[in-house]
TrEMBL record:
Gene3D superfamilies for this protein: 3.40.630.30
Lineage top rank: taxon: Bacteria
Family matches, as InterPro entries: Acyl_CoA_acyltransferase (IPR016181), GNAT_dom (IPR000182)
Name of the protein described by the UniProt record: N-acetyltransferase domain-containing protein
Signal peptide coordinates: none
Pfam families, sorted: Acetyltransf_3
N-acetyltransferase domain residues: 10-176
PROSITE patterns registered for this protein in UniProt: GNAT (PS51186)
Length: 183
């Protein structure tokens, strides 16, 4: 049996209530949280449990999936990936990805991105993926370039975090570019 949700290193899956502990621990690394979006005040374990339970019961959105990135071997959560700002009229979508610091540099992000793009392009008929990456996130900039994304633009000083302004880089990949690299 082959699953469209399983790659070389990871499987993408829905949130389970017991995932709360892993995601709660990922929030302890402020730099990693800032690289994903923005730093929030600490949340309680009770809130993390409630949020995971609510996510586990939510009906999946075919055009905006919110998925856990889990290791292929033991199904342990290592991060999350989400499609957002989906535009069916134009066939475009954005995505965001976050990997817990202890799981960086193991190929999980690249594997998860390819799985999500394959689903969005070949199952949902989207034709272009976009990702915004902060200029301070060198690892994500390198990852997107290595995956074959094209740098399409730059918004200067568009985010403030950790006492400094960051630029945002827009990366894009069309279905044709993806097919050439990953089909």
């Amino acid at each position: 049996m082959t699953s469209a949700w399983v790659g070389e290193r990871v499987r993408l899956r829905a949130t389970e209530p017991e995932d709360w502990e892993a995601f709660h621990s990922f929030e302890e690394d402020s730099d990693a949280v800032r690289n994903s979006w923005r730093l929030h005040p600490p949340s309680s374990a009770a809130y993390a449990k409630k949020r995971a339970a609510e996510e586990a019961e939510r009906q999946p959105d075919l055009d905006a999936p919110e998925l856990v990135i889990a290791t292929k071997d033991d199904n342990a959560p290592v991060g999350s990936i989400v499609a957002h700002h989906t535009d069916r009229d134009h066939g475009t979508f954005c995505y965001g990805i976050s990997i817990g610091t202890a799981h960086h540099r193991k190929g999980y992000a690249s594997d998860a991105i390819v799985l999500l793009l394959r689903f969005m392009f070949f199952e949902r008929r989207y034709q272009k993926a976009e990702a915004w990456v902060y200029s301070s996130n060198d690892a994500s900039l390198a990852l997107h370039r290595r995956l074959g994304f094209v740098e399409e633009g730059r918004r200067r000083r568009s985010r403030y975090a950790n006492g400094r302004y960051d630029d945002e880089f827009l990366f894009g990949m069309t279905i044709e570019e993806f097919t050439e690299l990953y089909a």
